[in-house]
Amino acid sequence: MDTLSGRADLLVGSVIDSSTSLLQQQSHDIVRFAMGSPAAEAVPVAIFEELAAKAYTSDAFDYAATEGDPQLRQAVLDLLSTTGEATTPERLTITSGGMQGLDLFGKLFIDPGDLVVVESPTYTNGSATALAYGAELLEVGVDGDGLIIDELEAAVARAGRTPKAIYVIPTFQNPSGRTLSLQRRLRLIELARRWRSMIIDDDPYGMLRFEGENIPSLLSLAEGDPLVFAVRTFSKILAPGLRVGWVDCAPELQPLLISAKQTMDTCTNLPNQRLIAAFLSDGHLPEHLTVQRERYRERKLAMQRALQDQLGTSANWTDPEGGFFLWVDLPGVDTQVLFPAALAAGVAYIPGPAFSPSGRFADALRLCFASTTPDRIAEGVTRLRRAIDG
Amino acid sequence: MDTLSGRADLLVGSVIDSSTSLLQQQSHDIVRFAMGSPAAEAVPVAIFEELAAKAYTSDAFDYAATEGDPQLRQAVLDLLSTTGEATTPERLTITSGGMQGLDLFGKLFIDPGDLVVVESPTYTNGSATALAYGAELLEVGVDGDGLIIDELEAAVARAGRTPKAIYVIPTFQNPSGRTLSLQRRLRLIELARRWRSMIIDDDPYGMLRFEGENIPSLLSLAEGDPLVFAVRTFSKILAPGLRVGWVDCAPELQPLLISAKQTMDTCTNLPNQRLIAAFLSDGHLPEHLTVQRERYRERKLAMQRALQDQLGTSANWTDPEGGFFLWVDLPGVDTQVLFPAALAAGVAYIPGPAFSPSGRFADALRLCFASTTPDRIAEGVTRLRRAIDG
Predict the structure, then answer these.
(1) Complex-level ipTM beyond the 0.90 threshold
(2) Which of A18, A161, A263 to mutate to test the interface with B (most CBs of B within 10 A)?
(3) Domain end residue (candidates: B246, B262, B281)
């Protein structure tokens, strides 16, 4: 089809995780450590059904306001007022999941050839979005304290130009589970100001801390600086299929976000906005989060125990204080080569190179501990060891 | 904010309908002819509530497959098999409303500077999407038989280059209500083949024919030609707040659509996909459509009678055989100037220039007859006449 444009080539070249669609076709016996979904048990289906009976008025199926349904907007403002991220209506735009927040950023800010910094490893679809707008990606490493700021400075110096944007998942990072330290957060904001770079502060997991001390977000540390564009979502704390999230950014951007969103999907689906608004205003969230945090802590510990039992010193893994993921290094093992054997053994994961635009991390993989019960976690890790043993 | 890119400027310059958000803030006493929503009475809320109890299993809130939930995909294939648009799984991709189908087209095909033909008048957000990808728009007039093909040929000759895409709403067009004749459909396909232009066949209203004979769609007339990219939606036949539609296009494009959609919103919200799948597979749609068609026929006639009674020979209006809209010419009246007076008199519409990227149609307006009862239609048109009389 010779009318296909250059833009489509960019998409073909992007780092979409092809193992996901492969997985969606697998049998139900697979232990699934691959997708970053909340536990099935964590979805409050009974409450949703009950709320639907109240929330499903005929106007709940009409077009929503593009910036979000007033009921949900108010409920989110109320929710955030109890956190370090209290905000105002003109900074808040409801989106179709966090992913649309990233897409909106790309549409507003990224032009072909722009330099965009991403963590290495990073969230596949986040870097793919930047690529879809023609960005050149600059991968900067992550260690136990998150993005390595010294490496960032050196990489930008080598690039000979400052980045248009710096894309970070500062808390319980996807895929590594690591958290950017307070000191590095402050340095990152300082550098962004010096370079006049935007920071995309993507934080889907921040409310799922099950250990350790809270660290203020980049959004709150920047105190209203328009350089910070914060992307948030209900996908991980409530349910991803709802496709509802929000953006918190400079008020001057809201009219642009509304214009852009009108050309993307008109508005976010309204029944689910109303369901979430009812869930929040009926006060269900605090208890829901308490239960989920404890659940995920137990599962992380179960996965770490199983890795210790099965792989011992032949592997290393992270120790996140929240979120969904462990990042596992398996020195000497090519995790892409291993993948079919692991599927055959009955366990699924995401190979490391899927999280790097340049295909780094051949001997690493991401495991999601959130969506699997401790018993199945032990079984899945045993299967993983069997696949490695060949 | 000096990091704001050129792309944002395109958005600022796009023809977003600012009157919509103004309207969303008005009191409930306004007769609303502005939004293109189905009648509130047409939304099968009771059935949705009943189906939700069945459809809301815990897996109904997880991520959906990016190409669409298998249950909905099968239900749509079954639905289409009863129409002139029978299709296959590899041509079908579920989208977050028809609007996302247009956005996907832009992301795949439109590069800055590309020529895109639009009808004049056309659907505001459709042309805005093309503008957001940097298209240069070529407006071609519409008459009683739809897009004027002679004018299209002449305009392309004058432009000195062939269009990348031709964007049409062939049936009960938004905003004019007009339908592209069979002969012109065939000529349009012929021209697209000669020019190697894509045709965006956007047909939200085709199933809402309440008079006259069905005309085969561009999609079906082209018999699988990859030049036709068809955009469809449940917004008008069921409810717009669901944000569920589909694209039917060449199978080679499906992997690109999936990659692109993953960087836009990951997947379409799943609870509403399941609701629609259940609605279709339980066989509710045929009766639903029968009732809606009769309802909309009555409302069109009520609006035409009211216009005749109130405005007589000082106005002209279209006579659509389906869909939602009348297009009204008011020679000598500036409908943008009239707008605040009309709102003050208690009636809302969309002024003509909102449907033209170059601001044509100063003395025309669009009225939606679908969402208002016949009594209120008569009242609304009376208020419109009062506003015109000053």
Answers:
(1) yes
(2) A263
(3) B281
Cross-chain residue pair B49–A48, CB shorter than 8 Å? no
User: Tens of pLDDT along A245-280?
Assistant: 999 999 999 999 999 999 999 999 999 999 999 999
Q: Which of B111, B131, B265 sits opposite A243 (nearest CB)?
A: B265
pTM, to two decimals = 0.93
- Chain B CA closest to residue A62: B241
Give the H or E element holding residue B326.
Answer: strand B325-329
Q: Assess if residue B57 is contained within a domain.
A: no
**Which DSSP string do the residues of A206-263 spell out, in sequence order?**
GGGB-SS-----HHHHTTT-TTEEEEEESTTTT-GGG--EEEE--GGGHHHHHHHHHT
DSSP B209: B
Do B290 and B277 belong to one domain? no
Interchain CB distance below 8 Å, B63 and A272: no
Does residue B317 belong to any structural domain of this protein? yes
Q: Which domain holds residue A328?
A: 6-43+286-389
Q: How far apart are CA B230 and CA B86, in angstroms?
A: 13
Pairing state between β B136-143 and B146-147: antiparallel
Residues A204-242 pLDDT 10s:
999 999 999 999 999 999 999 999 999 999 999 999 999
> What total of structural domains would you count in chain B?
2
Residue B52 lies in a domain: no
Nearest residue of A to residue B20, measured between CA atoms: A65
Which of A227, A260, A281 is the last residue in one of the domains? A281
Q: Do B328 and B265 fall within a single domain?
A: no
> For B46, which residue in chain A has the nearest alpha carbon?
A56
